[in-house]
Amino acid sequence: MGKRLGVFTALMFWVFGGLQAQNTNIEVAITLNQAIEMALANNPQINRALLAIDDADELVNIARSEVYPDISSSINYTRNIEAAPQFLPNGLLQLFNAGDPSKPNDALLPVNFTQENNWQGGFSVVQNLFKGEALVALKSSAVYRKVQEEAYRSTSQQVITQTRVAYYAVLAAQEQLRLANAQIRRLETNLSENESRAKAGIVDDYAVLQLKVQLSNQKPQQIEAKYAVEKAYRELKVIIGIPISFDLSVKGNLNDFDILSDTVKDPVNSDLKEVDRMNPYTFASSTVIDSASLAENRGDVRVTEAQLRLKDKEILAVKSRFLPTLTASYNLQWFSQESGSPTFFEESNRIQTLGVNLNLPIFQGFSRTSELDRQKIQYKDIEEQKRMAILMAQNEVASASEELDKIFETASARKQALEQASIGYDRAKKRLENGLGSQLELTEAEIQVREAEVNYAIMVFNYLTAKANYDLATGMVPFVDTTN
User: Fold this and answer.
1) Model-level pTM?
2) Cβ of 322: how many Cβ atoms within 10 Å?
């Protein structure tokens, strides 16, 4: 999966955002696929995971520096204003006609060997010929990068699932608002018709009063549904990483989504169905997801597996501290001294040295053995984390499967109840219009229709959410490479 999967989509929204700044009436409608691509391009968690991979690349370069030579250069100039003298016996100095005959031979006299100007400069090269910890660190850095790649993959699975659930939540909130608006319209229509019937003496004023009470009770629910939609949109925008003030809408209709069919009646649901079928689920399939499959696909399990490989390298690095280190060094230096004004290396001397150093650590307390034991304990701890992750994954798969099976078992009944409620409402309305029914019958029919519509929309939302959680639990999340 490309790390910058949604860059084009993000750019498109940036362009639309510029247009929106000029025309506040522009609203961008996005599909589920586009929302996922935007999340993969803009979500802060995704970007942080990508930065961790870039940081791992730099750690690889740092590890490589241990096997390259260390080359340095230095230059130093010193002006001796008052140089420190050396003290020599007077008898020794008299041999060179530099002593003081008036003083005894054992007297110490100050002698200055240092010139006023001193220069020194050159190059030094140090090369590790053998350093076990450096070699292990080079391999460990590559494994560390793999850990970050697995963390990025796991984060992508979680962000995609969060995007799906947030997208479905927007559709569910919009459906609740649509149903509340429809209920308001039905009540307003019935109220208008009953007011006309009351004037004609067909119904009494109490029937009109009943509808007014129902309408008054329904309007607060409509207001709550409206704010629920706004909240759902804000949460979706946070996940896909766009400004809260950006106006967008989502495509989809839960009431027209049939979870039992592979086809869609309304093209607006085509993306919902496409993502839903990327990891097919069979009702009551009794398929057992074994630990091997979870270890292969689950993001969190794969992260712990990569951490185990990294810990292996860290243990090897600690063991390498018991081995000797072998280094080679080369030095090239120029130096000069003179009195008076400096002339900068006009008369200089050069020295070259080449050395090999073997360092064998014999005893450093018990720090190395304790550190080795700690690394082994941490390895076992990661093994337990992996085992716990697999157990939790198996439980999540079973729970998601049970939720999906339960929804499948009730889907036909929910769909049939919606159809029957709609037929019942139409009949109750005609009966009232023909003077055969009562307002109470129509009110009950309205309540049944609304309840059936709400139950069906909630059932579809629960299914899509459970399916997203099932995909995450099995590690088969759409748009994420399961074999990477």
Assistant:
1) 0.75
2) 14
